[in-house]
């Protein structure tokens, strides 16, 4: 089953008699900042959390003579650091969808896509790569991340108009790279690619990742034909900006602002106005934006926005949203028995058994005496510094699911840990017991005993390993890429595996964390040198840091300031280093074990 995301959809529609769907000129005023914040929610994050797509304040627009979205407001910029964002528009389920944007690339790597339709089920992926001589080759992919690149070299620090399209019925995506506006679509695109068919298009997205070009982008337009890309519609229309359609608000939301804009109409003229109706309530005439809708927990709302010209309705838009109600549950078992999409408060205490550090979703595994669950906190709702062994009480979140794994998505912050230093003893199970009741062990720290690995060699990241006991077989999956299990030697004799119960679309597996989780696994010298230890929390403001993920041999720690002065030198008797005497700043930590050592940066706040 797929995780239930309530996408924040921003609707920007013109009159239905025209084929222009969205115009984004990045005209958000004189203050620069995170695009998702500056745009007031028009752009929303769908992946990544650091390195936001930035808004560069007006006047800074990219320009091209004759292009309708030239020279308006500011522009956006990004360079591949983390955050991916999208802006939604009314669904297009047939025909061909056209998109365009002014882009100016200041740097380009060996190739990746940076813009596409939709925030999931990507289509018309637009990318760029270096041609080997310092120039740019532009390319396009359809449903695959593998792009087809053109052969024309284009220059860095030069503004081009990219026009890209996706034909829904055939899956064909085309890319045109223009140095000047052309009123008709050129017969030969710069690049073309064919992929998945039948995908409804509902958003334009900016992507950051490795090898993403550094670029400025402006003048984004979405339409269903070439003419509307190159020309402005003149019909009067109204657009709902927020909330996104199908938005689900957290319990306790008492009011939701409906914001809207009008185009090509003077509302100061008598008879030109906007009317709003909420559900079956009486119409509220001649309103202004924002329009506040009172809400209650558990309520669902349909808002109709009408634009009148000379007292005649000429355009209508609608948006629906709801407010969740919260249910209290005492245990994780009760939480796991809940309904996906609903909001719950876990009133009992749960203990953190593992914190995932190799993705940007702020994921934490927690469990109590009744079971375990995975916290998925991509938005960073939980702000306290939390550690393995900390207790959480009063956690509020929405129940979700991804690839069969039940997840808890926080909707409110916590003041901090309700306890610290608790050690969870893994529950010992056999392979047959795990297979018979896999769902009950999901996200719980368990120890599968009496198993043999089917292969030898070294553990690699994102790899499944069959483990057997008699005729029973299950999977140990290595998935935590920052831990020292990567590169460790696979045991060649009977073993036990400690890990977190998990699932991938009905296939159950256990996820070991450290080399110490796999009895008989051993570290190679390279493994010790390169990926032995996790140091957390880092940055820290707690007065201590933990060193985890090692074997049982003695560990020596030396801490140096940036002048090279040694400020701590000790042999650990536990996994904790006391740094409370150090001033805020950046330090280097040298961790030694046996004949190998590694140095890591430590930030103390």
Automatic annotation (TrEMBL):
InterPro entries to which the protein is assigned, alphabetical: DUF5689, Secre_tail
Keywords: Signal
First and last residue of the signal peptide: 1-19
Domain DUF5689: 328-518
Source species, domain of life: Bacteria
Residue stretches making up the Secretion system C-terminal sorting domain: 535-604
A Pfam family recorded for this sequence: DUF5689
Protein known as: T9SS type A sorting domain-containing protein
């Amino acid at each position: 089953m797929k995780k239930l995301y309530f996408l924040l959809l921003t609707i920007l529609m013109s009159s239905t008699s025209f084929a222009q769907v969205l115009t984004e000129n990045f005209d958000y005023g004189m203050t620069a900042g995170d695009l998702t914040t500056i745009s007031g929610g028009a752009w929303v994050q769908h992946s990544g959390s650091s390195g936001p797509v930035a808004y560069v304040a007006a006047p800074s627009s990219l320009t091209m003579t004759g292009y309708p979205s030239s020279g308006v407001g500011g522009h956006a910029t990004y360079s591949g650091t983390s955050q991916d964002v999208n802006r939604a528009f009314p669904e297009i389920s047939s025909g061909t969808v056209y998109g365009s944007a002014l882009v100016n690339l200041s740097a380009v790597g060996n190739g990746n896509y940076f813009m596409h339709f939709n925030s999931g089920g990507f289509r018309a992926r637009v990318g760029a790569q270096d041609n080997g001589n310092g120039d740019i080759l532009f390319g396009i992919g359809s449903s695959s991340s593998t792009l087809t690149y053109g052969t024309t070299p284009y220059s860095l620090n030069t503004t081009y108009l990219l026009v890209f399209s996706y034909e829904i019925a055939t899956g064909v995506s085309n890319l045109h790279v223009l140095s000047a506006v052309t009123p008709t679509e050129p017969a030969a695109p710069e690049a073309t690619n064919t992929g998945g068919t039948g995908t409804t298009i509902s958003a334009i997205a900016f992507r950051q990742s490795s090898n993403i070009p550094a670029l400025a982008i402006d003048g984004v337009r979405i339409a269903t034909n070439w003419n509307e890309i190159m020309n402005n519609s003149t019909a009067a229309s109204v657009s709902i900006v927020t909330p996104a359609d199908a938005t689900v608000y957290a319990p306790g939301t008492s009011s939701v602002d409906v914001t809207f804009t009008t185009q090509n109409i003077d509302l100061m003229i008598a008879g030109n106005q906007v009317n709003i109706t909420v559900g079956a309530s009486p119409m509220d005439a001649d309103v202004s934006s924002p329009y506040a809708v009172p809400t209650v927990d558990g309520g669902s709302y349909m808002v109709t926005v009408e634009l009148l010209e000379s007292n005649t309705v000429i355009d209508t838009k609608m948006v629906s949203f709801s407010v969740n109600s919260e249910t209290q549950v005492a245990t994780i078992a009760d939480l796991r028995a809940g309904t996906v999409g609903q909001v719950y408060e876990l009133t009992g205490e749960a203990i953190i058994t593992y914190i995932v550090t190799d993705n940007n979703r702020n994921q934490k595994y927690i469990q109590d005496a009744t079971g375990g669950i995975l916290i998925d906190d991509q938005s960073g709702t939980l702000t306290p510094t939390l550690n393995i062994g900390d207790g959480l009480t009063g956690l509020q979140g929405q129940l979700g699911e991804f690839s069969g794994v039940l997840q808890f998505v926080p909707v409110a912050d916590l003041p901090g840990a309700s306890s610290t230093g608790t050690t969870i003893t893994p529950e010992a199970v056999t392979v047959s017991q795990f297979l018979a009741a896999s769902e009950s062990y999901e996200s719980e720290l368990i120890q599968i005993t009496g198993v043999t690995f089917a292969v030898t060699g070294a553990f690699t990241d994102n790899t499944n390993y069959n483990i057997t006991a008699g005729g029973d077989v299950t999977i140990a999956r290595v998935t935590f890429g920052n831990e020292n299990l990567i590169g460790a030697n696979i045991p060649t004799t009977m073993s036990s595996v400690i890990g977190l119960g998990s699932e991938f679309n009905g296939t159950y597996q256990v996820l070991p964390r450290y080399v110490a989780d796999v009895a008989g696994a051993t570290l190679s010298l390279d493994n010790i040198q390169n990926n032995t230890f996790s140091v957390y929390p880092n940055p820290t403001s707690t007065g201590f840091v933990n060193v985890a993920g090692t074997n049982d041999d003695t560990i020596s720690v030396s801490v140096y300031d940036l002048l090279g002065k040694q400020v701590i030198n000790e042999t650990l008797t536990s996994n904790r280093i006391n740094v409370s005497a150090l001033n805020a700043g950046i330090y280097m930590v040298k961790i030694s074990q046996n004949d190998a050592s590694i140095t890591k940066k430590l930030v103390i706040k």
